Amino acid sequence: MIDKDDPKLTAFALGELVDEDFSAIEAEINSSAELLTEVEAIRKIADEVGEILLAEQYLDIAVDIPRKIDIPAVKPSHSGYYVTGIAIAMVCVIFVTIIIQNINKNEIAVFRPTLTPENKVEDNYALPQKNSGTNKSGQLANLIKDQEKSIENNTIETLDELKIKNNQNEDISDFLINGVKIKRTAPILNYKSETNRDYGQNSNSTNQNQNTNSNVPVVINSDNYSNDQNIVKPLELHGQIMCQDPICLLESNRSYKQNEILNNIEKNNIALENKSTFAGKTTSPTPNIAGPKNLPFFSPARISDVSDNGSIVGLSAYQVMCQSINSGKLPSVSEIKIDEYVNNFRYNYSVIKNDQRFVIQTDMIQCPWNAKHLIARVGVKMLADKTGKWSYDNKADSSAVTNANRNDDHLKTVVRFDKSKIKSYLPINSIGIESVAEINTKNFSKGNKKTEHSAIIGTCDISSAIGLHGEVMLLYEIIPVDQEQNNANEKSNLNQQDRLLVNDYFSVELQEGEDLYSDKEQMTRVDAPVPFHRLQSKVNIIAGNKENNTNETITGETQFAVAVVLFGLLLQNGGVMENCDWNTVISLAMPNIKNNEQRKEFLKIVEKAAAMTTKSPPRKPELQKNNL
Amino acid sequence: MHDNNLYKAVCRYVGRLLSDEELVKDIAQEVFLRLEQNRQNISHPRSWAYRTARNLVIDYYRRRNHAAHPVVVGEMVQYLPANTVTFNPAALAEKKESINIMLEKLNNLSQRHREVLKLKFQEGLKYSEIAEVMDEPITTVSWLLHDALNRLRKELNVNSKNDK
Questions:
Q1: With CB atoms 3.0 to 4.6 Å apart as the test, which of A311, A344, A522, B113 could cross-link to A245 if both were Cys?
Q2: Which of A41, A55, A421 lies at the smallest CB-CB distance from B87?
Q3: Stated pTM of the model
């Protein structure tokens, strides 16, 4: 007997039941009008949900199975057969010669069980020898079997494994992957935890950290694959590798072309085959490997299987930009991510006290590119895990919503952490800077809530910043309404009601999300409303109120953040902006360097970018002594 | 399912979880490389492909968001993107009002509820396939789907009563 809450009813309505189950449930449903109604209701809601979900947006990419999937194993040409035959004949001749020599020396059947280093077959593609062979031909067969097995199993021999296999202590700097010799091209940096990252401020510790973990995915470059354009290079900043993560590396090295790579692989496979055959070396099945197998770095996920070591992914745009500018090329507009640039730096936040999970700091300064506008900074420092145990319940939510709530005459902005309402995987660039009013309009059109007293004026994904520093900075360009009214010529699509939302008051209230309960708890709390936690008292800042801007430290941090924003905007605009230039960036950033290597590096980057975009480079920054 | 169709389906699925076109392509390609390499041992290529794609996306987000924190088995789902639902306004322009309400209710559901709904109604997977993708027992999948639809019904009923 089933009741209305039985999942089988849903399964029946959705056509998931078969045979006996279906017949049994169908009989029961047909005998009960209540169940019949229930099934109809389930089907109705399922149809509605299905209709909406099918219309959901997704990244529509050109979908065809890529060419590399279809690549057949490279077959030798007809001439290849001749060459192979000749090579085999040569190998046979060599063996016969050796046997004859041994006969002459009366050393028949006195083969050493292992190959000595002197007799070791020089083969770029051979795996280390095993001691199981009883004669030379047996050892040769073992070698070939080993290689075949390695290729079949798609094994990746690590440095340690090679050492163990070889039973030797000599330093091996290469890997064998699918029988192809792979060389390291980057030193290894071991990121043990967030706190170990010193961002180049301590070069000694950086050196000590290198080469400490052989399990870290290495940036690899095949010997047989020497096209420099296609080598995945590490990102470097302050003399150390900032990003070891393959995805990050791949994202930053998109210049290589897949088809070219695959063509090279085909050529290389043929070359490999010819090489090994002509040279009379140990025959290797390597040439028969299909192209993609030779490129373990081709796919990000492949290396991720080797290690999931932490890295600075998500804030990589800054490193990519630095790398690009250092190599004499300005980043393309699509690569410029101001939000990531801003949040790449550490800022001076208050210490989180014992009973707090969040600290917020707010500040306002004059907008450098429009004197009538203000830049509001909302800095959030989050204690992501208060207990020390990382679990779903303890984790801080990964997105922020900024709401403008108009209650009576007061406008307040709520930075709220609520994963259930945020499209955290959509590219929303409001962390860096965006006109509040523009965000307002945009989100209204997306169908977000708009009520008399509440409206979402900004959404952003802060997960990457929170994941890295536990900090995130949100900057908003505030357009005072009075000014808008006085300046009727200013272009804007906003109506008066929207502009009111950003007028007069700008306050911040930080609240923990509504949806911080684990899934299990939620399941057992079907009807209970999830309580709303308020962990931080609100901080009101009235625009232009000097009392709140007297803290020079905070204002200085805001100035530096705005300098970074301006830098990004200048990059986007080719160095040309009304009322601002590279010197403005430097003048904003200079007083707030505070002996910070990362910020000093930033100044150098600004200089280089300026030299690339303008004929007359900006004045060279003269760091004040107290800043060094 | 023909490989090309499956490839498109996987691209679409990953494309809903990630916003980087190159990354979507990379992950889809990786799924198919593995599929090709292990085809002999895979009895259900469709659910296998979805599951691999899901795991690769989780891998990506785990490294991206919480690189310093250990993975707790059973909490992998937290590394998936919020999986909230957005819709193409042009596709459903006529029913905008009711859709907005439904979207709100859908996004109020838990991550797992949304995921199971998406796998069922977007990808058209069967219970058994969803179970394989999510690495959950079929009974859990069955209950999650049932519960998700029930919640939506209740929420919508409350809404319609309030309107009256």
A1: A311
A2: A55
A3: 0.34
